[in-house]
Amino acid sequence: MPKSLCLILLLLLISVQMLLAENPVSKIDKMLAGMTLEQKIGQMTQLNITTLVQDRIAQNYGEVTNYVLDTAKIINYVKNWHVGSFLNGRAVSPKNWVYVTSTIQSINARYTDIPIIYGIDHVHGASYLKNGTIFPHNMNVGCSFDISHAYNAAVTTVAETAHLGHNWIFGPVLGIGKAKSWGRFYETYSEDPYVTSQIGVAVVKGLQNESASKPYRVAACAKHFLGYSDPKSGFDRSPAEIPDQILREFFLPPFKAAIDAGAKTVMLNSGEINGIPVHASYEILTTMLRDELGFQGIAVTDWLDIKALETMHFIAENEKEATFQAIMAGVDMSMVPLDTSFSIYVRELVEEGRIPMSRIDESVHRILKVKEDLGLFETYMPTTDYIDTINSPENIELALNAARESMVLIKNDHSTLPLADKKILLTGFTHDRKSPLCGGWTYRFAADSDRWFPEDMLTIKDAFEQEFGSKNILFQGTRTIKRAARKADVIVIATGEDHAYAETGGSIDDLSLDKGQLTLIKEALATQKPVVLVLTEGRPRLIPDVYDEVDAVLFAGLPGVYGAQAIAEIVSGAANPSGKMAFTYPRRSGHMVSYNHKRSEYSTIRQVSDDLKRHSIANFGHGLSYSSFTYSNLKMDSSITSGTASVRISVDITNTSSRPGKEAVLWFISDEVGSITRPIKELVAFDKKRIKPNETITFEFELIPERDLSFPNKLGENLLEDGSFLLQVGNLEKRFWLNRD
Fold it and tell me: Which fold has domain 396-618?
């Protein structure tokens, strides 16, 4: 061989070695290269736990409520079908969860080195764990205007469940709460994208906080990408019609924020946007999610979504074609969730050459990478070592405090609340029920009875007895209250939604409070005694015919297991309400106006001086306190800013009452003229602090024009335009100008 050729080959070998040294083959690449097609498809498959159980779970919370697994079923799915993920369950004991997940992992380990990733809907605390700490639902957390509650809930959740083998939490929910009748409204944080973004980031950081779950790690799941929360009809999984510009300005930012914060997975919208089911949209799942947002993690469908392309959306003639459309659009994992049809069809489609192996490898690489990031290849077996930390006094106090700060005192005429030295008649359809305090996704999908809840959980009735003393409380069922009211000084009615619901189970035809409850309220008003309404509900139920007549209204929402105590403390005055509405509470169903509506959206608003009374009973940001606060001394560094110069803004808040209280300060900006019609105002910052009597605290935020004054067009291009802007905080406002040059 000529020396020149030897030299060339030597140089080539050196170059290859240098290239390999600079770009070593990763563990995931090596693993992927050694996998069969069937093994790869198995990693893309997620099945429900009901495919593995021997017996159905017991029907009484107080009885033995443990799963018994069928090992033959597990062997079949992990050995023959190579299934790489399972999900969900119900609220069983910690030890039973360890039995379930350790059994699945140990059997799986006989046949593969790739561990199982187990997903679960712990959406407001340890929701699927018996005696796990349950926090207020997302809607309430938004009303607290304090992201620490969201972070605490997330950290508590992983601290209580990661060691049980729950390494994939299906949260946060990042839809914008627009459709008030939607059965999942309570799962949203706010109608505002900024609030949703800030809370979403806190939840992602809390769930993926390795120190909280050590030695385990957990993946957050931003859901449901994209536009799921605004179905046109209000029914779950029904079509949404959202213009591209609106989609980008309002619905996309929370997901971008969560992805930028490191969210490892996303769950996809089960519905359609503008005629295209999201889980079959290449434009949304690949062009937007991957190319534009740079998301590298797992995109998983929701329940039965691929099958739904055939059976609900009718864009595929059969399930095989539906599978083809979803995979080619960008789906990585199918929540199948009850059979092996997905695996069969993906294999056929690859063998036929319709789905290239490169597309399969792309998804499997993402799945394996998340498993690697979670440390599952080293630490995947659960343990009972941390069971004693579950539902600790510290965790309970965090949940209780979140409940206290998440309730909104909407109305308090004549300073009716707090109640002191009063004989109270307590009644209402929810006053002695547990499920109306917690809603869906609490101990199971939707608890149909209070038997699913802890025996020591307080109802509002129990909490009032503890807070006021039994001698000061009169109780009355939902029969006529005229006679009982004679002995009372005030009537407190716990009303709202008297059962838990989730997803399509929450579908309703009318947001109005039902006739029976309204009749009870009217009977109370007829006694001429002061009437206080406590609203326990997962969405704003309408009360236009009684709202003006009642003396006080407390929006309790879904405050969780410790919500009854928080309600009693606020009514008694032991706790000072500090929540503010994170959504607009409508007065009637005819016109539902979000706070950030367009100026032309409801033209009659411009002709009405008090749109609060006309269209809503509580605007976004409204909330009363037993303290009083005065806003003053609004300052800006400059009244003119450029596109690159930030502006420091401050305001002084003084507690002018004799009682300490917390005040949430909300900063709004109005773009007064824009090339695309602008919202009447938009929230750009918020903060919440405790202020002592006669104390003044200065609240500040930095206005960054590119972040706070810009908006996208329908192509996603950011526009920053010269013009006049109005800054608003409390009852103060200040105009300023943007000159980019």
Answer: Rossmann fold (3.40.50)
